[in-house]
Amino acid sequence: MYRKALVVIDVQNDFVSGALGTKEAQEMIPRLVEKLKASSGDVIFTQDTHKENYSETHEGQNLPIAHCIKGTDGWELVDEIKPFTPKAKAVIEKKAFGSTRLPSLLKPYEEIEFCGLCTDICVISNALLIKAFYPETLISIDSKCCAGSTPEAHDAALMIMKNCLCKIY
Q: Phi/psi class of residue 10: alpha, beta or left (left: φ > 0; alpha: ψ in -120 to 50)?
């Protein structure tokens, strides 16, 4: 049996309509909901997770916009995808761009598909991390169910992932 996992990266209020929200992220949500409805494989959600001392961290000093502070509305997954979380294989918090928990969760799959936010930061970080762990596994990216910090950054990240042998569609 062919095993496929769908990894939904950081589709949280702060990246859609909050501190770092974009029009492209808002427009992507209905497409993601349709993808989740049609998904027959395992689904894993990630949540960018920071503490109150965000401004004191390396990331906070270089991206000085507080976001995804655990327990705030901005940290929550957007309402449209919450109905899919009870059936998820996992909902994991990550404190950096890439998740160190994903490799162990994704070992048994023949294909691992990524979507979510932001294409040029957390999606690319996780896709390339998993590609490094499992170079013979098909890593795919649904470009229509991702959004970057800017449209240009989104396109650049897709090109880099394609150059690293991820399937982009």
A: left
Cβ-Cβ contacts under 8 Å for 136 (sequence gap 6 or more): none
- What does pTM read for this prediction? 0.96
- Provide the greatest CA pair distance for the chain: 47
Q: Which parts of 39-166 fold into alpha helices (H)?
A: 58-62, 102-106, 124-133, 151-163
| Sign of the alpha-carbon torsion through 89, 92, 100, 158 | positive
CA dist 166 and 162 (Å) reads 5
Residue 63 pLDDT: 86
SS3 at position 4: strand
CB atoms within 10 A of CB 136: 6
Question: How many Å apart are CA 5 and CA 101, to the nearest integer?
Answer: 15
Residue type (1 letter), 138: L
Each residue of 86-139: pLDDT tens digit? 999 999 999 999 999 999 999 989 999 999 999 999 999 999 999 999 999 999
